[in-house]
């Protein structure tokens, strides 16, 4: 059994209102629910329980969330133990009320303070999570009084049930205190790296004859794929077809002469010198012919793709005359890209302390860190570019898909700093008319909307100047859905809830 180390525990009593459990409608105190939230390294446990009274049955509803993805715990059976004064009540179930939600019923026989223990068994692991401070009262009046004292305020709060959060991309967490240096913003141009781009030129003069495949800028190509032909057929001067046939005839004649000389040499009819001359002529004709055969045919020069990638630029059209050495097209592969940004002179001293960067794609606002793209800084300019007198900085990155050479991206440089700041992910912030808010967790199903004052941002994290503390658990992902649950009457916060 692996016991999970608890890193956050809270327990409180609240009036549940419309969170009544149908299964316990006969209970005299159905409007009262004790709520407990316990976090281990792997599991979030959210418990709603009737106040325990000696000699009375009390219902326990346990919600289990895996912290790796903040989804409901699946395919498991759970054993729950209520331990009071050394006496243990136990119940095991493998049938959830709903996915991730399990119900237990206990009837303690004595008053006192103890704990609820949950042992979770999955296909791959076992966990144990404990809820301390569970009190069994002697009377219902004492239980009601304790519940009223610990009822949390719901001012400026919204109910967002576990069932709702399990259906979306949702998570909670804490702000971080970490080094957060100056952020320098700019725009960078995407280019292919020099080793991933090649200009294909014509090796002969002639007319461009396109193949069966339509060649357009952006078309994908494979290494060794035939693309087009440069044909000199019918031309009087520098006709490659004539040269090819001439080389083929010379090669065939030289080979026949050499074979005949070898036979005659064996019979001592010709001298060794004559055989060497025939062999030399044969080898010379073979080299010329094989070179032409590799790159040309009777139709002309066969243009073959030297790499797998795409056509970045077409420089000729079908039927166009080209000279030997004239560029036909530019092909490149996009496995790695070059980002070049320019920065104002006032940042010249800070550019030497760049530690990372974030890149935002303009069409869809996807944000990547330099580490995510396996990027690196390859150069920081030592002089100003004219005419705008800015300092160029270049980065090499992997292409995750969607980065188009020639387009622009936003880039935020993060510089080294000894200054620490409290930061939260950008996804945790909600902006309303220039004012920023976060949702602070009161319980795993109750969140308080709280205004914060922000500082600088690097596109992924934002500095929080005031409004929350490092001990406040906030919504990290899914904050917009919590906002909609608060503002939209179309979203019923209790829709589909088990309570």
Keywords, separated by commas or semicolons:
single chain, 499 residues, alpha+beta, Immunoglobulin-like, conserved putative lor/sdh protein from methanococcus maripaludis s2 fold, Elongation Factor Tu (Ef-tu), domain 3, 4 domains, seven-stranded antiparallel sheet, 37 strands, 15% helix, 45% strand
What features would you describe in this structure?
- By secondary structure, this protein is α+β, with helices and mostly antiparallel strands.
- The chain folds into 4 domains: 2-151, Immunoglobulin-like (Sandwich), CATH 2.60.40; 172-179 and 420-487, conserved putative lor/sdh protein from methanococcus maripaludis s2 fold (Beta Barrel); 183-193 and 334-415, Efflux pump adaptor protein, beta barrel domain (Elongation Factor Tu (Ef-tu), domain 3, Beta Barrel); 200-329, Helix hairpin bin (Helix Hairpins).
- The protein has 5 helices and 37 strands.
- β11 and β12 (126-137) form a beta hairpin.
- α3 packs antiparallel against α4 (272-295).
- It is elongated, with a radius of gyration of 38 Å.
| Overall radius of gyration | 38 Å
CATH architecture of the largest domain: Sandwich
| Number of helices in the DSSP assignment | 5
In helices, the fraction of residues equals: 10-25%
């Amino acid at each position: 059994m692996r016991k999970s180390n608890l890193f956050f525990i809270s327990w409180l009593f609240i009036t549940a209102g419309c969170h009544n459990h149908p299964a316990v409608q006969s209970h005299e105190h159905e409007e009262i629910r004790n709520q407990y939230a316990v976090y281990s390294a792997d599991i979030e446990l959210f418990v709603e329980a009737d106040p325990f009274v000696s000699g009375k049955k009390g219902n326990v509803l346990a919600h289990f969330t895996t912290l790796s993805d903040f989804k409901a715990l699946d395919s498991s059976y759970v054993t729950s133990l209520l331990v009071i004064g050394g006496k243990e009540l136990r119940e095991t179930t493998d049938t959830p009320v709903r996915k991730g939600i399990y119900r237990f019923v206990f009837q303690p026989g004595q008053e006192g303070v103890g704990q609820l223990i949950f042992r979770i068994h999955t296909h791959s692991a076992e966990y144990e999570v404990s809820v301390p401070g569970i009190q069994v009262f002697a009377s219902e009046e004492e239980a009601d009084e304790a519940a009223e004292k610990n009822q949390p305020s719901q001012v400026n709060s919204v109910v967002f049930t576990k069932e709702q959060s399990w259906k979306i991309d949702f998570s909670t967490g804490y702000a971080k205190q970490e080094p957060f240096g100056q952020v320098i913003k700019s725009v960078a141009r995407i280019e292919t790296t020099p080793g991933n781009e090649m200009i294909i030129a014509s090796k002969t003069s002639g007319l461009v004859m396109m193949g069966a495949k339509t060649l357009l800028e952006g078309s994908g190509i494979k290494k060794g794929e035939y693309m087009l032909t440069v044909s000199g057929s019918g031309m009087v001067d520098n006709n490659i077809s004539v040269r090819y046939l001439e080389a083929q005839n010379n090669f065939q004649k030289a080979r026949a002469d050499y074979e005949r000389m070898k036979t005659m040499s064996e019979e001592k009819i010709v001298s060794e010198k004559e055989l060497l001359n025939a062999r030399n002529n044969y080898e010379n004709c073979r080299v010329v012919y094989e070179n032409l055969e590799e790159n040309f045919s009777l139709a002309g020069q066969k243009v073959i793709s030297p790499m797998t990638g795409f056509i970045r630029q077409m420089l000729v059209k079908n039927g166009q005359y080209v000279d030997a050495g004239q560029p036909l097209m530019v092909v490149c592969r996009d496995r790695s890209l070059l980002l070049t940004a320019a920065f104002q002179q006032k940042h010249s001293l800070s550019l030497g302390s760049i530690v990372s960067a974030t890149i935002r794609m303009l069409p869809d606002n996807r944000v990547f860190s330099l580490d995510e793209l396996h990027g690196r800084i390859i150069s920081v300019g030592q002089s100003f570019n004219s005419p705008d007198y800015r300092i160029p900085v270049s980065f090499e990155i992997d292409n995750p898909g969607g980065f188009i050479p020639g387009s622009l991206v936003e880039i935020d440089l993060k510089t080294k700093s000894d200054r620490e700041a409290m930061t939260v992910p950008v996804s945790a912030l909600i902006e309303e008319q220039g004012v920023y808010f976060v949702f602070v967790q009161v319980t795993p199903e109750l969140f308080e909307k709280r205004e914060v004052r922000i500082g600088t941002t690097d596109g992924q994290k934002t500095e929080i100047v005031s409004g929350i503390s490092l001990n406040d658990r906030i919504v990290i992902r899914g904050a917009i859905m919590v906002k909609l649950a608060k503002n939209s009457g179309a979203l019923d916060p209790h829709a589909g809830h088990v309570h």
